[in-house]
Every structure is written in structure tokens, then in C-alpha cells.
Specification:
The chain is α+β, with helices and mostly antiparallel strands and 281 residues long. Strand 12 and strand 13 form a beta hairpin. The N and C termini lie far apart (56 Å). The N terminus is likely disordered. Strands 1, 2, 5, 11, 12 and 13 form a six-stranded mixed β-sheet that branches. It is 24% helix and 29% strand. Helix 1 packs across helix 4. The chain has one domain: phage-related protein like fold, CATH 3.90.1690.10.
């Protein structure tokens, strides 16, 4: 595989960009793990939003079926550009081994997923300059846990809220300190009790769950807030034109190469009220 160190050129082929950058970002970013991922090749994605369903009714045999119309609107999602710039040595850029490419890909993935989660979980007003708006920009359901994390009542309220809107919570997400507080809850108030309230899944011993629903940890979340997210109502939209290119001209005097990655991503929340913001207070 040819690498270009004189002038701008593609350091990774489209297939390598997909395997080393795009797919790991989608697999590792918490924002994409808790959403429904849609990859598009167009400039925009138009999503139909059903405001009200057609009305069904029982009718006598042979009678006319009453007609009704669904109220439908449309949401247009335009992926926004997310770019990362890394500087590496010319020696590494000229090394076409899989290990060298993996080093480049891993660094880019870490930075990209960090920025994605930061914009997705950003607190109110939830907007990122030149980027997509996240959960903090929405009017969601809110459930209070009564001032402490001593029980999981608010989590059950969040599940019930989603079920009222004919969906279900598929993930809880919180900051690491909040996840720790929840993970160290004990099943019994007895002094010396060490049985955790959160039960482990034997098939995934390192995973955390609340009532069978995965609990994710993200430093991008605000303290003492847990998001209850139904994946089918949250879309993570990715354009299929991510690129990784190199250019040595800007770093000529230090014999280094600039590696630039660009990808276009946005989010769509098709029913914000099905999402619940669980607060400690």
C-alpha cells in the first residue's frame, strides 16, 4: 500500500478507513452503542415522524371500514463534520505494516469517540458549535430518585415512561462516579452486607445491568444524572465518506506528517419524551 509523504494523499484506503476508524468508532463510542446506527451516502437523511396513528375500529361483517389518516411530519438530519488532526513521524507514516496503521487508527478513534460522546451527552443547552445538538437540547421526561442513589425506583419510572409511549429502555448511561455509586449499592441494609443490588449477567461478567438493561459509563455525562434511552427512538447517523489523509508539507522542517481524519455524524431523536433524564435530587 502506497503512503504519501510529499503533498496531501490518502494514507488509508476507503476499506481501511472503514475497518480502522469508522467501525471502531461506532463500536466503541457510548453514543453509538445506545442508539440505532444508520449509515447514509446522501447529504441528508429524511426521517418520517408519526404524530398520531390511524384509528382502528371494530366493524360488523360487510360494513364499511371507517377511514382515518395518520398525522405525519418529517425531520431532516444533516450529518456535521467531525475532524481530528494528528502529527506522527515520517518513519511511522512510511511503515505500511498493519501494526503501524493500527497505531494511527487507534489514536484517531479515541479522539473522535471522545468528541462524539461529549456532544451527545452535553448538558443543557446541549448544543455544540458547528456540531449536532445532543440530549441536553431536548425536552425529555424527568424522574427524581429522591435525593440519593439508595434505591432504583426512578429507573423503574423511566422504564414505565418508555412503555407508555410503546417503546422500551435499552440502555442507561451515567458518569463513572455515578456508575460507581450505583454499582456499590447493597441489596440489604444489614450492616456488613456485601451483596450488590445490581446483579451480574453470567454471560457478560464485566458488564453492569439494572433490571437486565445495560448500564454504560461515559465521562461525558453530567454528575448524578442517568439517561434512560430507548435505542429505536434515537438515531446515530453517519455519512459513508470518512477520509484519512496525510500531508508532510506543513511539517517539513521537523520531518513529520500531519494525519487528518474527517467524518460526518449527527443525531436524531424521533420521540424525545420517550427518553428519561434520571436525577439524584
Amino acid at each position: 500500500m502506497a503512503l504519501y509523504t510529499a503533498g496531501a494523499g490518502a494514507i488509508l484506503t476507503p476499506a481501511q478507513v472503514e475497518s480502522l476508524v469508522v467501525r471502531p468508532v461506532i463500536d466503541q463510542a457510548v453514543s453509538s452503542q445506545v442508539s440505532t446506527v444508520i449509515q447514509i451516502s446522501t447529504h441528508d437523511l429524511r426521517i418520517p415522524i408519526v404524530l398520531s396513528d390511524p384509528s382502528a375500529a371494530f366493524v360488523a361483517e360487510g360494513s364499511e371500514i371507517p377511514a382515518s389518516d395518520a398525522a405525519v411530519t418529517e425531520q431532516v438530519v444533516t450529518p456535521r463534520k467531525l475532524a481530528a488532526l494528528s502529527i506522527i513521524s515520517s518513519e511511522l507514516a512510511q511503515d505500511s505494516s498493519p501494526a503501524a496503521l493500527q497505531v494511527v487508527g487507534d489514536g484517531i478513534v479515541r479522539d473522535v469517540k471522545r468528541q462524539l460522546d461529549a456532544s451527545f451527552f452535553k448538558a443543557a443547552p446541549g448544543t455544540t458549535p458547528d456540531g449536532p445538538s445532543g440530549l441536553g437540547s431536548l425536552t425529555t421526561a424527568v424522574a427524581s430518585n429522591g435525593g440519593s442513589w439508595s434505591n432504583l425506583d426512578a429507573f423503574e419510572a423511566a422504564k414505565a415512561n418508555a412503555e407508555t409511549l410503546f417503546t422500551e429502555v435499552t440502555a442507561f448511561v451515567a458518569a463513572p462516579a455515578t456508575v460507581l455509586a450505583l454499582s456499590t449499592l447493597k441489596a440489604f441494609a444489614t450492616v456488613g452486607s456485601n451483596m450488590p443490588l445490581l446483579q451480574q449477567d453470567p454471560t457478560q461478567p464485566v458488564a453492569r445491568t439494572i433490571s437486565g438493561i445495560p448500564l454504560y459509563s461515559s465521562p461525558a455525562c453530567a454528575a448524578d444524572v442517568v439517561w434512560a434511552i430507548p435505542a429505536e427512538r434515537v438515531l446515530f447517523v453517519v455519512r459513508q465518506d470518512a477520509t484519512v489523509v496525510s500531508d508532510s508539507s506543513v511539517m517539513f522542517t521537523s520531518d513529520r506528517v500531519a494525519i487528518r481524519c474527517t467524518m460526518r455524524v449527527s443525531y436524531a431523536f424521533t420521540q424525545p419524551l420517550s427518553i428519561t433524564k434520571i436525577t439524584k435530587a
